[in-house]
Amino acid sequence: MNAHPTLPLERPPTARLVPPEAPLSPLRFFRTVLRNPFETWPRAVYRDPVYRSSFLGRPTLYVMDPALVRAVLVDQAESFEKSEVLRRSLSPALGDAILTADGARWRWQRRAAAPIFRNERIVSFLPAMIAAAERTRDALAAGPPEAETDLAQMMMRTTFDIIVATMLSGDGQIDVARVEQGITDYLESTSWIFAMTLLRAPAWMPYPGRTRSERARGYLRDELLRLVADMRRTGVEGRNDLMSLLVAARDPETGRAMDDRDVADNLLTFVTAGHETTALALAWTLYLLALHPGIEARVVAEIEAVTGGGSVEPGHVEALAFTRQTILEAMRLYPPAPVIVRAALADVEIGGHRVPRGTPVTVPIYAIHRHARLWDDPDRFDPDRFAPEAAKARDRYAYLPFGAGPRICIGMSFAMLEAVAVLAVLIRSLHFRLAPGFVPTLKQRITLRPAEGMPMRVARRDG
Ligand code: HEM
Asked: Which residues bind heme (predicted)?
């Protein structure tokens, strides 16, 4: 039912991938992997419960059935490790930190860092999140109304600002533009690494962009190590930021603490895993709201009602239920992390499917979120899918923007608080319109980016 009868029930088409009908030939497959890995997924991945494919004699199992997803990520999680492609892509930059480590090395770091991300702790970061969003709002409001601004870039800046404020109390001497560029240069090489892994090429093999990517990696690792060393010198007294919390963190079972390298690698992991993903969730949400003015009006009305027409305060954020639903639905259509891949540690069976040791098992989140058996009219943007009753009626493992099981995103609550706070501050004062005729192209570089950014015209609501 349309809750706002005066507003049209608009259903404009939104950007999506068009999957190939049938599996690609090896050459097209390889070329497509280099351009955009998830474009190789055939239509069956959006329709069937499982799908098996093979490249140069190397089999892969895709699992879309929620029961199988649960088996891989939760019930039989111990039988799987992070995939070789993830380790080859990310470990050179992120070391053996929480995102990339496995087994005992992962377990103790996760245990030590978990208390940092508890809700009671992260709500204390809300003032910094709101302040960063207000700086972005003011910068956007000051621009000429008809100028186009890349909102994807603006959201990256905002979430980076937030990670610097919450990680380093904002006082670290950090070259924001260089660090951001370093992360982009590094991630740019990951599709080559993916292709090299498929070809079983050795890790030293050269590929285009390798030198630039290695330079970026060296810069990022040195920079973070320097910040940790600076902080050890000045001490952690009176600080409430992720870096001091990591330095003070102890494994509750063994009392073990992190050394400088562990702290630096985990900080870079939080920067890489946390700022771009959250920025993309926001950029895609703004895109969808620009296409759906009726839903935008509901978001604005909720913010008005909760804030009583005043500014967004920390105490308001958790009450913005529909705003949150809108972000959840945007992450269904455009999951910032569109795929999870695991590898079987031994021969295992999941739901009657034999998985030989070493076989990669792909959880294609982007396709699960648009799967014909799991979602009604899957390409339609409808935040009411996340109203409490509707969400309860659905299988938990049909929706996985943050993964599931023991390796579920440690920053999930942080990211949701941040995304709701930033969106609320921006959308209550500003109106966003897409550049005329603009349709984003989906590009996978570990994360799901709009290839040409998100050019938008921004106007003040009161103007
Ligand atoms: C909208 C924003 C975010 C999305 C969509 C997202 C998505 C994900 C996903 C899907 C995973 C699971 C990967 C797997 O199972 O292989 C993950 C893990 C992780 N995320 Fe996030 N993330 C977001 C924000 C953040 C933030 C803000 C932080 C930290 C400040 C963060 C830190 C991490 C870490 C450290 C892991 C590894 C956890 C582990 O393996 O134990 N993420 N994230």
From this structure: 409
Query: End-to-end CA distance of the chain, in Å?
Result: 32
The letter for the amino acid at 455 is: P
For residue 279, give the 3-state DSSP assignment: helix
Mean pLDDT of 106-115: 90
Query: For 415-435, what is each residue's pLDDT tens digit?
Result: 999 999 999 999 999 999 998
Strand partners, 350: 353
Measured in Å, residue 412 CA sits from the centre of ligand 1 at 7
What structural domains and CATH numbers belong to the chain? 83-332+365-460 (1.10.630.10)
CB 135 within 8 A of CB 254: no
For 112, the enclosing helix (H) or strand (E) is helix 103-113
How far apart (Å, rounded) are the C-alpha atoms in residues 287 and 289?
A: 6
Cα(3) to centroid of ligand 1, in Å? 35
Residues with CB under 6 A from ligand 1: 98-99, 110, 269-270, 273-274, 277-278, 281, 336-337, 340, 401-403, 407, 409-411, 414-415
d(CA 208, CA 200) in angstroms, rounded, equals 17
Confirm or deny that 409 is annotated as ligand binding: yes
Which residue's entry shows tokens 């943050």?
A: 402
Burial zone of 452 (CB within 10 Å; 0-12 exposed, 13-18 middle, 19+ buried):
middle
